[in-house]
């Protein structure tokens, strides 16, 4: 799933005037209190609105799914379901778990706030929805156009990745119809389409067999087609993998051909023959043996089913070459996609970590200049006058110290936010002496680990580090350092906030 998921149990505010708010976490869901719920039943009601937090300052289309308090078991199951799937990057983003009085009766309904994944793909294919992007572009262009060909590929890429992640975790959907895929457009390009699979259900194992078809399409895929090929009645009960891959083949057929059903009708025979030709030519993970024996199915594979599709769409690969910084690579991987589309890449890059990463070179030089200043303040010599005069491993050390800044900030219970030059709510201007001591210890521990990995060794007979021999008398626990070296590490910690502000960031206390 692209974007950072906030999965938490929240303390809800009063929520007057169509607002559900959590002051501790700083998020807000706004909706029209006079609206009719988008979906309503005795068990739950769904309200559409906008979700805003630090990661989505411009707002995200969202839904609040409110459960009648008498159905707490259903609420718990859905929370567990969405929570697990969110960690896999499957389904809508889960923003928050809270409670709110939607009816104004004083009774708070347990509520899940999640991403609004968009329009049903089935409705889009039937032309039954009027959803557009900026009122100018349809969600999908007409079948047969060059734009639609690329859009279909992006829809399938998104669906394939989610199915692949779910299957890797042993989770099977068993109803992968167009009705259970939602689509949304984020920009003008064909690759700016985003597809989200909804209604994955926890439970079901690969060994499980369906007792009977639960929808007409099951019967067509797993009974009528084999019988048609064998010219005789074929009985077959598919397992969850076969169900998912057969439905995925039918979804792909519907997407490419514009057909919305394999469930009979005046032209059923022609549609069935077209589907068989499509599967034989364009589907590698599911197929029908010519003798009418049961269909075969396999799991999706990144190299076989996804890589070429992502390459054609010019998506950004999540690997060490694209994201050279280990910190930024870890952030990109948290979006649970082997490739990021433009919207996902912007979500990744519009973060404090990415902004910091973009300035790491400058921060590394600033770290070196701080080192020189502190050395001279202690009356010590400086072995290298310029950053570029240092050996390569020492230059890498300056980079590593700069890249470690977010981890130090989190260790204090603070967060980094992008600063626009104004004073941020809860901004931290300086650290206490206890915090400085902790930061000094963390930096020394990081420095020791880095030096040992680079092949440095302890030399207790020396009074200073030797970058040529790669020896140092300071490769000892923080407690064993003399007071001068401890004070040097403390001074480095005191200079941390000026370094962070130089990167266009601020340190803030969450909840203020």
Question: What does this molecule look like?
Answer:
The protein is an alpha+beta fold and 512 residues long. The chain has 3 domains: 19-116, Phosphorylase Kinase, domain 1 (2-Layer Sandwich), CATH 3.30.200; 117-314, Orthogonal Bundle (Transferase(Phosphotransferase), domain 1), CATH 1.10.510; 356-508, Orthogonal Bundle (Globin-like). It is 40% helix and 16% strand. The chain contains 16 helices and 20 strands. The protein has helices spanning 72-87, 121-126, 146-168, 216-230, 240-257, 268-282, 302-312, 326-333, 342-349, 352-358, 360-377, 392-403, 405-411, 433-453, 483-494, 496-502, and strands at residues 19-22, 27-31, 39-40, 44-53, 56-67, 94-100, 109-115, 119-120, 132-133, 137-138, 181-185, 193-197, 286-287, 296-297, 316-317, 339-340, 415-418, 457-458, 471-472, 505-508. Strands 1, 2, 3, 4, 5, 6 and 7 form a 7-stranded antiparallel β-sheet that branches. Strand 4 and strand 5 form a beta hairpin. Helix 3 packs antiparallel against helix 5 (240-257) and helix 3 (146-168) runs antiparallel to helix 7. It is elongated and about 95 Å long. Mean pLDDT is 83; it is low at 1-15.
